[in-house]
Structure formats: structure tokens, C-alpha cells
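thought: user wants a sequence for this fold. calling inverse folding tool.
action: design(structure=
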């Protein structure tokens, strides 16, 4: 059964979502500038209307809800960009896959976003970043791919944002919300992920997940 808001309206986040990345303004491997990082007003209108049209088509054809995934090095990354996107799109057609790691990577506050735009959060990617590695990457203008190779995405609970406040904010929405836990790691030795997953699961259980 789909998640529902207190008033009975279906809420995004019942596991029927299909995530969509925005286009990259910077190559996430080479740091080559592909286009200006800031869109013009006309380009924003094209982006938002295009996402609404895609959301409508996906819903009609497959019964899925479109959620856009803010991502470093794309046109929907910072707080300002994410809020502008949400303010410019129809809640019935497109919502947000909040990746807490990428949002923190770009300076965003996940708790504040959930509190202010909770009805638009359709899917959660719980992830942390290492603030020291991030600061070095930003200072050197390193693209997100090489930053991941340097270890910018970090194992909870040692990174940011703190995940317990994020989960508390999500729980306060009073709806079911689909979430996955991620840690971007590449290259990666095959024996590394499982111990990290076990430790992370234990940590999240201690937070009430």
C-alpha cells in the first residue's frame, strides 16, 4: 500500500519511485567544464517543464513517480538550486530523491530541507561525506568522481550530515518513506563493503531505524 499523508493524499515515497539525475555541468571524472554551472531563466523553465513532462509520461506509462536526485556537478545541487527546482515544479508530477551525502557535498542542510519541503521528499539516500576531504576537493576544484576516489563519501557515523537528526526529521513527516543506505566507493576491494554495511546497520539501529 502506498504511503499517505495525514489528509489521505498519496505521498511520494512508497517504493514506486524512479530516480533521475540532472544533467552534469562538469564532467564528474575529468572536471572538464561542459557548460555554465548556472542556468539562465529560460533554461530553468526548459528543465522544470521537461521534468514535469517526463514525470507525467512515466506515471501514465508505468505507474511510477519521478524523483529527481540532486548530485554534485549538476544543475540541481546546492540549496538554492534544489529549492528553486521544487518551487518551480508540480508536486503531482515530480518530487525529490534526497541524497544526504551529495546535498551535504554541495553545502545543503538535509534536516532543513525535510522540514521545509517534506511533502516533496519521495525517496532517501542516506549517505555521509568526510568534511576534510570535501574541503580539499572544493579548494582544488576536484570533480566529484575523483573526490570519491579520495574517500569523500564516508562511513557513518564519522561524516556529515549527522544521520540521526535526518531520520528524526523524516519520521516527523508521519508517512512511510523508502530509503536506502549508500557509500560511494571506487575503486573498492571486494572484501571492504560487507564489514562497513554491518557496522552501518548497527549504527542506524541505534538511531531507531
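)
observation: tool returned 209 residues.
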Amino acid at each position: 500500500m502506498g504511503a499517505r499523508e495525514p489528509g489521505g493524499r498519496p505521498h511520494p515515497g512508497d517504493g514506486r519511485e524512479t530516480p533521475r539525475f540532472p544533467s552534469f555541468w562538469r564532467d564528474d571524472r575529468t572536471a572538464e567544464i561542459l557548460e555554465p554551472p548556472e542556468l539562465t531563466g529560460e533554461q530553468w523553465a526548459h528543465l522544470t517543464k521537461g521534468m514535469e513532462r517526463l514525470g507525467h509520461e512515466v506515471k501514465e506509462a508505468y505507474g511510477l513517480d519521478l524523483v529527481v536526485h540532486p548530485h554534485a556537478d549538476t544543475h540541481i545541487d546546492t540549496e538554492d538550486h534544489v529549492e528553486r527546482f521544487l518551487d518551480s515544479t508540480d508536486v503531482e508530477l515530480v518530487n525529490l530523491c534526497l541524497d544526504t551525502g551529495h546535498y551535504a557535498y554541495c553545502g545543503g542542510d538535509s534536516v532543513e530541507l525535510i522540514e521545509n519541503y517534506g511533502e516533496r521528499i519521495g525517496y532517501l539516500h542516506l549517505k555521509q561525506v568526510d568534511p576534510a576531504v570535501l574541503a580539499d576537493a572544493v579548494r582544488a576544484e576536484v570533480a566529484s568522481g575523483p573526490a570519491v576516489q579520495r574517500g569523500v563519501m564516508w562511513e557513518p557515523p564519522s561524516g556529515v550530515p549527522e544521520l540521526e537528526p535526518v531520520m528524526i526529521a523524516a519520521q516527523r513527516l508521519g508517512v512511510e518513506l523508502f530509503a536506502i543506505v549508500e557509500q560511494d566507493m571506487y575503486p573498492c576491494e571486494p572484501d571492504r563493503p560487507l564489514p562497513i554495511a554491518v557496522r552501518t546497520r548497527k549504527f542506524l539501529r541505534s538511531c531507531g531505524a
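thought: summarizing for user.
answer: Here is the designed sequence. The helical segments are 41-62, 79-87, 100-105, 110-117, 131-139, 144-149, 163-171, 193-206.
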